[in-house]
């Protein structure tokens, strides 16, 4: 069968409500006046990865559960506007949503509404098999019920990536994702010993590469049993929000990987895209273009 999709993104579709707060942690008070307003827009982890990949010129399809609600309408509209294929499985409980409190330095605190999923939620197996048969690669979000798709994706023969986000290296929920993926991304935020966890993922799972992002410290790449540091890239504009930086990193890394670039170059692409994402206000869902990414990579090489 012809694989006419570059990347199938599973899960992570939803809506965020953005609130700019004067500081984080936010001290208790009866009320705060929010001069910048309260903004609701489509875009959670799967949406951002799909958006980033599409902006880099890859053919993308997104699969997730969506409700017949205003939040679901925002997600559908984002995909239609950006030309991203979408298969929406009906979710009677509604579309995933969150509230993001964003501080002046761009840091965020996310409050996730977990009432919009149920343990028995599943993607139709026939749908997963058909979409997997048409793609080169699958990026699997850790949102429920994506773990159940991992065996089906392995059977299809596609390569798999995942982002464990702020895994602590111990929570068993994340392990199926960590051990089934060929490329594993995660944040160092909750890791007491990042190298130990990265090497465990590589040793016990299938990962050809494990990448741990560390914010202003850069990132770390484990490949061929060698751990290397990936330096930060100076953002092209003031940092206003870190939301979506990890997703941008993953998307640009995958662009490089699917283009046949060495892993070190893929990580450089990720650092460039992550830095760009930090300059985009949380109220917008934008991503670096392929021309912009390659131009910045050329500047870095000088």
TrEMBL record:
Q: Which organism is it from?
A: Streptomyces fuscus
- Name of this protein: PfkB family carbohydrate kinase
**Start and end of every Carbohydrate kinase PfkB domain?**
182-286
* GO MF annotation: an example: kinase activity
- Does the keyword section mention Calcium? no
Instruction: List, alphabetically, the SUPFAM superfamilies matched.
Output: Ribokinase-like (SSF53613)
What keywords is this UniProt entry annotated with? Answer: Kinase, Transferase
Instruction: Please indicate which superkingdom the organism of origin belongs to.
Output: Bacteria
The record ties this protein, via InterPro entries, to: Carboh/pur_kinase_PfkB_CS (IPR002173), PfkB_dom (IPR011611), Ribokinase-like (IPR029056)
């Amino acid at each position: 069968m012809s694989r006419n999709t570059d990347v199938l993104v599973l899960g992570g579709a939803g809506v965020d409500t953005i609130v700019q707060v004067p500081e984080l942690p936010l001290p208790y008070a009866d009320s705060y006046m929010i001069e910048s307003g309260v903004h609701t827009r489509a875009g959670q982890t799967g949406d951002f990865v799909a958006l980033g990949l599409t902006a880099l010129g890859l053919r993308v399809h997104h699969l997730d559960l969506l409700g017949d609600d205003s939040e679901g309408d925002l997600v559908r509209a984002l995909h239609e506007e950006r030309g991203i294929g979408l298969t929406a499985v009906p979710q009677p409980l509604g579309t995933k949503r969150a509230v993001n409190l964003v501080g002046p330095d761009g840091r965020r605190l996310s409050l996730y509404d977990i009432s919009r999923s149920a343990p028995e939620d599943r993607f139709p197996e026939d749908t997963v098999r058909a979409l997997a048969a048409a793609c080169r690669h699958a990026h699997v979000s850790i949102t429920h019920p994506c773990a159940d798709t991992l065996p089906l994706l392995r059977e299809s023969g596609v390569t798999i990536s995942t982002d464990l986000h702020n895994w602590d290296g111990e929570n068993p929920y994340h392990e199926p994702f960590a051990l089934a993926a060929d490329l594993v991304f995660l944040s160092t935020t909750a890791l007491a010993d990042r190298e130990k966890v990265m090497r465990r993922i590589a040793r016990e799972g299938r990962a050809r590469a494990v990448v741990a992002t560390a914010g202003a410290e850069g990132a770390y790449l484990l490949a061929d049993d060698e751990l290397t540091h990936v330096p930060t890239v100076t953002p092209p504009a003031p940092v206003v929000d870190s939301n979506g930086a990890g997703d941008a990193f993953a998307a640009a890394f995958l662009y490089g990987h699917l283009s046949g670039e060495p892993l070190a170059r893929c990580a450089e692409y990720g650092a460039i895209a992550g830095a760009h994402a930090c300059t985009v206000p949380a109220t917008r869902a934008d991503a670096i273009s392929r021309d912009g990414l390659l131009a910045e990579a050329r500047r870095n090489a000088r």
